[in-house]
Amino acid sequence: MTGVPDGATTLSRPMARRRRRRKWWALILVIVAIAPVAVWYWPEINTAVTGVGAVPRCASCPMSRANYPWLPVDMDYEPLARRIPMPRGYHEVAVRPGSFGEWLRYIAVAPPGTPVRDVGGKRLRMASRYAKAVLAIDPREMQECADVVIRLRAEYLRQAGEPDKLVFPLTSGGSISWPRWIAGERPRLAGDRIVFGRTSERGDSREQFDDFLTSAFTWCGTISLARDGRSVSPEDIQPGDFVSRPSPGSTGHAMLIADVVEDDAGHHLALMVQGAMPAQTPHVALGHVLGAWVVVDPAGALEVPGWRPFEWTLLRRFR
Partner of 13 at 20 to 30 A CA spacing, among 31, 132, 165, 249? Predict the structure, then answer.
């Protein structure tokens, strides 16, 4: 005689069907719940959803490796604009030839797949996950978020032959300038102030420039950078603009706008370059269009994966 062993239970067919349906509904609810998170953290998914197409650019570039003199001799020059296409329906905003914005648009990037590394060469997995492209520029001690903005601005001004503009505010007040550094003046801490005195020989070598940058990284930061330049409306955003969120007593953040495109209706998208703690390779942060471009929404906030939103009142432009 066929029977059910003692202690065993059976489910009626209607009950089994109801249980299966509950499982399917639970799975659907999980998918619905995680979909927005997936779109936020994996911009390539967002691209597939929105159907935005990529348009190659930079068939011929106005810059060359000579504009980025720190590049290793054995590294091929590939400009950022060639690496990251723009969305269909958009065009590059106009930039003045030879300007900081043009220089950033064509800045050299490392080969595809290059990870973000710290100053010791260790691969930073989380930072690499939030990087769309890594700049072909070395990480340095103390070269964190605001310092990346400062270094790129300084590198541009030096190669462009504009040393008189190479001046940055100090967090404690006053400023540090390359012309004074060339004259042999060096900063030192006197009480709670930074003072300058001529303690070195005159010179403008690359070694001295690197020492100048290290000093700027030491005495400048998100607070001082937020005071630099002038305020800019997001409707007027251009490559070379930056945002700096000062947070006295805690960690702030700063990012540099490396490129901007717009459509015929005046909607803008931007590529954002950043560094972070620990000091690491500067890189283009992920965005939500083609995995790279960040939406510029004047009515909202600057949304960058991995960071809390920036207020548009923080947008500034170097003078």
Answer: 31
